[in-house]
Amino acid sequence: MLANLKPRQKLDGHILKNVPFFSTLSPEAIEEVERIIVKKRFAKDQVVLIEEETSDYMYLVYSGKVRVVQMNEEGREQIITIHKKNDFFGEMSLLDGKTSPASVIAHEDSVIGLLSRSDFDRHLLSHEEIRHKIINLLCERLRDSWAMIKILSFDNAEHRVMAVLNRLQELYGVADDRGSLINVRLTHQQMASYASVARETVTRVLGRLEKDAAILVLEGKTILLTDAFYARLKGTN
Length: 237
Known about the structure:
By secondary structure, this protein is α+β, with helices and mostly antiparallel strands. It contains 8 helices and 12 strands. It folds into 2 domains: about 10-150, Jelly Rolls, CATH 2.60.120.10; about 155-235, Winged helix-like DNA-binding domain superfamily/Winged helix DNA-binding domain (Arc Repressor Mutant, subunit A, Orthogonal Bundle), CATH 1.10.10. Strands 1-8-3-6 form a 4-stranded antiparallel sheet. It has a 4-stranded antiparallel sheet with strand order 2-7-4-5. A 4-stranded antiparallel sheet has the order 9-10-12-11. A hairpin with a 5-residue loop joins strand 4 and strand 5 (about 75-85). It is globular. It starts with about 25 loop residues before the first helix and ends with a helix.
C-alpha cells in the first residue's frame, strides 16, 4: 500500500538514461518518462509493497537496496531476492492485474521511483523494444525462482548457507585480489531466512567457513569468498 505520495517530480541526474531497461528509448522518450516518475524515500526496514495487495505501480530502485520477502507460517521473512540501484520490481502486477506475490522492504535507506499503471501502458508498452525487455525481465524473475528452489533443495544446512553466499556473489559480487566481495550486507537472521535455516546455524557455518579460510569477514561485516570457498562449493554439487 502506498501513502502520502508526493506530487510528480523529475528524477535528479537523468538516472533513466543509465538504466539498461530504457536504453532503446529515444532521448525524448526518456525525458518524458523521467518527467512522470514519482520519487519517494523509504527508511531502512520500511515496507514498500505488501504481499497480496493490489499495486498500481512499477518501481525503480533509484538508490539503496530493497529485499523481496514472503512471510512463513511463523511470521518470519523468507528472503527471495534483493534489488539494488537501477533494478525494477512490481511489473508483474501491472501486466496481469493480480496482487503482488511478495512483500518488498527497504533493506537500507532507499529512494524509489514509481511509474503508474496508466503511464506504464502509455509510455512503455507502445515500444516494441520495451516489450521484449519486459519478457527478458520476466525470464530473470523465473531464474531467480529456480535459484531459490536450488538453495532450498539442499538437505545439508552448510550447503544451503554456501549456496546463499554463492547466489549473493552472483548478484552483487565485486572482484577483489583475494576473491569475490559480496557487496550487500545481511544480518545472520536475514541470511538464515534466505536459506531457511536457524540463525544459530548460519552463525555456526560462517564461523566454520571463516576458520577454514573459505571466507573472510571484513570490516563492516562484509563477506569475501576465497578460492577455498569455491573449491568447497564444488564438492557440494
